[in-house]
Write a structure and sequence with these properties.
The complex is a heterodimer of chains A (265) and B (380).
Chain A (H helix, E strand, L loop, with lengths): L1 H5 L1 H23 L18 H4 L5 H34 L5 H7 L2 H4 L2 H17 L5 H25 L4 H8 L4 H30 L2 H6 L6 H8 L7 H31 L1
Chain B lengths: L13 E10 L2 E11 L4 E5 L6 H9 L6 E6 L2 E2 L10 E4 L11 H11 L5 H11 L15 H13 L5 E5 L7 H18 L2 E6 L2 H7 L2 E6 L2 E6 L1 H6 L4 H6 L4 E10 L3 E6 L2 E6 L9 E6 L5 E4 L10 E12 L3 E7 L5 E7 L12 E5 L6 E4 L13
Parallel strand pairs in B: 3-8, 3-9, 6-7, 7-8
Antiparallel strand pairs in B: 1-2, 1-4, 4-5, 9-10, 11-12, 11-14, 12-13, 14-20, 15-19, 16-17, 16-19, 17-18
Classes of the chains: A mainly alpha (265), B alpha+beta (380).
Chain lengths: 265, 380
């Protein structure tokens, strides 16, 4: 009893971690599942089949490719536009700046289902009725990623001391050189963070996409569709891969910054 | 306040003429004229908000003047961009580039101008500021004093016509500040460039600069060598801001070519004519506390000036090397007296009757229209 009292924080902490990691662990485990029956939600036996034949259902790989394609494109466009907007909002004193700063939050605050249905109305009214598909998904994704990019880059820019740019200018750097040698490298971490956030938002989105996709099927839509008949185990393979990729990104960043810190001491 | 000929283009230092800077509702710099000779260590001294930093930023090109001209080595640079001026700045918060290492920070200006031999020049400069070993570190890895030296090296390496220092020692603690004052002075002597140092610290300005311009409310109050300013202040602001002064009301009785005689509460005192900065009527008689001699009532004081009797010691602070007295005079004013502890005189106690005196050549006379307390609060 006394032991429990002394370790109560560690115990609760451990329980929370278990709670957080059990679903993730399950995804990894199920990627090696060899289902004996149609009940795919039970671990029946170990196999590498799922990993060796990830595209056993070609429809899944098609939807995955579509999601990645839209994710990359939407991220690229949203990051470029959002970064430019963030610079304008922080560095330029124009009429309506404070209102713009406020309005940029609106798409983040609005419920997705509302945004999705209003976009659908817009597209249909705009004459896209029969052409819902790749382009409309892309437009919708750029829209909801944009606010996140602006907010992320803006906070990075606002935290940056503008005397650094004055110093560069004082040291014979032209405005272009000042931007590329000083401003941009310092804002870059914020831009990269915004891009990562954009990609995961786009890749993950179901509600808005579902309403505006026409006959196209993205990965989340595919999973939603097949969940009623039984998930192919390859969905878990994709989940595990994504987990590994994000872990690698985080760890590389961590290792890099540690190595840099150590080299400097 | 400017003296040399208005030849303009032939002047090889920094010349500022009729410079004005107004912000929305605030006139920061007013009709400023200034000549900074080439190779000098010049200090712009004043309390915060006096316009000294604004002046510096206009010389750097970071702020556009409302009117007026700035010429440097005969060239008009008033409308030049900061990156087109042979001027470099050491910023108050150093403004080192956090993503570049020390070497690249120092090399920044050379690389932008595509100067050759960057490697060797940076090495030499890092040696001058004793940071060779830190070349590959990032600014965040250095101490405040080291960052300060990097900022100095980064500006100096470009061999600017004028190096501007904007309160460069403000963020350092007292001990480090003293060391850096000597260090910067040494470097200036070594490289022989023109330094303009902006500071609110009068001690810093006096120990480092050969010429000090005291600035207040957008104008230069007085300019000269530190000892000229201290020994012969021309305004109440300078008298109070640079060190401490006793300022006593008096009425001018006669002005000769050599001396001015002033009636000070019934006692006639004389002041050398070149130290009298008022034309007549009433004035403030100024005397530095350490120039005032103190003695017991009726004692013989070693000063050929007048003896001012009737003082009563109202406060004594013993500092070891000196004793600081406040002496209440018959006309109600308390005067400060700093007495060296030579052992020759006793230390007076509160309530004792004393006499004061000073040598007439140490006194100065200021315009009565000026605020007697000007600059006293800003000096700290």
């Amino acid at each position: 009893m006394r032991w429990v009292r002394e370790h109560v924080i560690a115990l609760i902490g451990g329980a929370v971690l278990v709670y957080l990691f059990v679903p993730i662990f399950l995804v990894v485990l199920m990627s090696f599942n060899d289902p004996a029956t149609r009940n795919v939600y039970r671990f029946d036996g170990f196999t590498l089949d799922n990993w060796l034949h990830p595209c056993a259902d070609p429809a899944m790989c098609d939807s995955l490719a579509l999601s990645i394609e839209i994710g990359l494109l939407a991220t690229l466009v949203a990051t470029v536009i959002g970064t430019l907007a963030a610079f304008a909002l922080v560095r330029w004193d124009f009429a309506g700046r404070s209102q713009s700063n406020l309005l940029i939050f609106l798409p983040m605050a609005a419920p997705e289902i509302v945004m999705g249905s209003s976009l659908l109305t817009l597209f249909v009214q705009g004459g896209f009725a029969g052409q819902l598909g790749f382009v409309t998904i892309f437009i919708a994704h750029v829209m909801f990623c944009l606010s996140f990019v602006v907010v992320t880059v803006r906070s990075r820019l606002a935290g940056m001391n503008d005397t650094l740019e004055q110093a560069a200018s004082d040291l014979y750097a032209t405005p272009q050189q000042t931007f590329w040698r000083v401003t941009f490298p310092l804002v870059l971490p914020g831009i990269l963070g915004a891009a990562l956030l954009s990609f995961s938002l786009s890749f993950d989105d179901f509600i808005i996409t579902n309403l505006n996709s026409g006959s196209e099927v993205t990965f989340p839509m595919y999973v939603w569709g097949v969940a009623r008949v039984g998930l192919p185990m390859q969905v878990n393979v994709v989940g595990t891969l994504m987990l590994v990729i994000s872990l690698v990104i985080v760890l590389t960043g961590e290792v890099n910054s540690r190595r840099r810190a150590r080299a400097l001491v | 306040m400017s003296s040399p000929a208005e030849a303009g283009s032939s002047y090889d230092g920094l010349r500022i003429r009729a410079l004005n800077k107004s912000f929305a509702s605030f006139h920061a710099v007013k009709e400023l004229d200034l000549d900074v000779p080439r190779g000098s260590f010049f200090a712009l001294l004043g309390p915060s908000g006096c316009g000294k930093t604004t002046t510096l930023r206009m010389v750097a090109g970071l702020e556009a003047p409302t009117s007026g001209t700035i010429t440097l080595a005969g060239q008009d640079i008033t409308d030049k961009k900061p990156y087109q001026r042979p001027v470099n700045t050491v910023f108050q918060n150093y403004a080192l580039f956090p993503h570049l290492d020390i070497f690249e920070n120092v090399a920044f200006g050379l690389r932008r101008r595509k100067v050759s031999g960057v490697e060797a020049k940076v090495k030499d400069m890092l040696e001058l500021v004793e940071l060779e070993a830190q070349a590959r570190k990032k600014p965040a890895q250095l101490s405040g004093g080291q960052q300060q030296r990097v900022a100095l090296a980064r500006a100096l390496i470009n061999e600017p016509e004028v190096l501007l220092l904007d309160e460069p020692l403000g963020a350092l603690d007292l001990k480090l500040r003293r060391a850096m004052q000597i260090e910067i002075k040494r470097i200036q002597t070594e490289v022989g460039l023109t330094f303009i140092h902006v500071t609110h610290d009068q001690e810093e300005a006096m120990t480092m600069a050969d010429t000090v311009a005291v600035m207040n409310a957008g104008v230069i109050e007085q300019m000269g060598t530190p000892s000229e300013l201290y020994e012969n202040p021309a305004s109440t602001f300078v008298a109070n801001f640079l060190g401490q002064s006793n300022l006593i009301e008096g009425t001018v009785q006669s002005s000769g070519s050599d001396v001015v005689t002033v009636d000070m509460h019934g006692i006639g005192v004389t002041i050398p004519a070149h130290r009298a900065h008022t034309d007549g009527g009433k004035g403030w008689i100024g005397i530095r506390p350490e120039k005032v001699l103190i003695g017991a009532a009726g004692a013989e004081l070693d000063a050929p000036g007048n003896t001012i009797p009737g003082g009563v010691v109202s406060d004594v602070s013993f500092f070891g090397v000196s004793t600081q007295y406040l002496v209440k005079m018959p006309w109600g004013q308390e005067l400060m007296v700093f007495a060296q502890n030579t052992g020759r005189d006793p230390i007076f106690r509160t309530g004792e009757s004393v006499e004061l005196s000073w040598r007439p050549e140490y006194a100065f006379l200021l315009d009565h229209a000026q605020d007697v307390k000007a600059g006293a609060e800003e000096a700290s």
